[in-house]
Amino acid sequence: MENRTENIKQGSPVYFSYASNSSEMQTTQPQTRTAQFQNVFLIGIVFLIYSLTSCSSTTNNKVDNVADSDITNNVKVADTSIEGESEILSKAFDLYDEGKYSDAIGCLENLANKGSVRAQFCIGDCYDKMSDYKKANEWYQKAAELGFAAAQFNLGVSYESGQGVTQNYQKALEWYQKAADQGEANAQYNVGVFYANGYGVAENYTKAVEWFKKAAEQGVAEAQYNLGVAYEEGISVQKDISKAKEWYQRSADQGYEEATEALNKLKQKEANHTRRLDW
After folding, report:
1. DSSP class of residue 67?
2. Alpha carbon 203 to its chain's center
3. Distance between CA atoms of 110 and 216, rounded to whole angstroms?
4. pLDDT in tens, 111-135
5. In whole angstroms, what separates CA 116 from the centre of its chain?
6. Cβ distance 145 to 131 under 8 Å?
7. Residue 229 CA to its chain's centroid (Å)
């Protein structure tokens, strides 16, 4: 079975345009990913849904190893120590890779009913693949309530997008927060998005930037870009062009185009300022 990261769900990013002649950021409506904007504080909601064969965007650990290691940052989940669990999961993975999702579910149900969070999560993922989002969420809920961060994140995605459940930003934030508190980087980023937009919570740029920083330090390119914007404009942090350039550079190094553009604009401003001083 291959180690791979699979982005199943993608959401529309949310854009913030910064008013350069005031101290406020103006929020705009969510746009499609192909829309072009200038001078924006881009805060895209990460809609990564974990796959059966890769539980994280930041590790290559297989699902049947996550109870011993973790999905992102040494977040521990309870080891169910169920006899034969690894063998059953391995068989289910093979069925999953063959696209036999119903068979994989049948293979996993007994194990899941014994309390295996990995099996519960994997059943949820199978139902997601079959577009039965209601059942997917039921199984994610079981694993999420036992502290499985990937399932908590996926529930957040479902409640944020209204897939298989009634859209509810407060519940989305609740589950994102649980996963974020365990160190899940994409969840940390989404918590920042929710605070920046006031989704399910009072708008709070200070908390938004705090969560962007946590995600940025774990390598989320969009969070690194947003942190660069915060330092460039002094949004809930002390204005610091050096730090802005640092975070833009980190994001740009990952191929994030907006960061490259922001970095080039900063360098051009500095060059223009130097020329004016020479005059």
Report:
1. T
2. 19
3. 40
4. 999 999 999 999 999 999 999 999 9
5. 24
6. no
7. 19
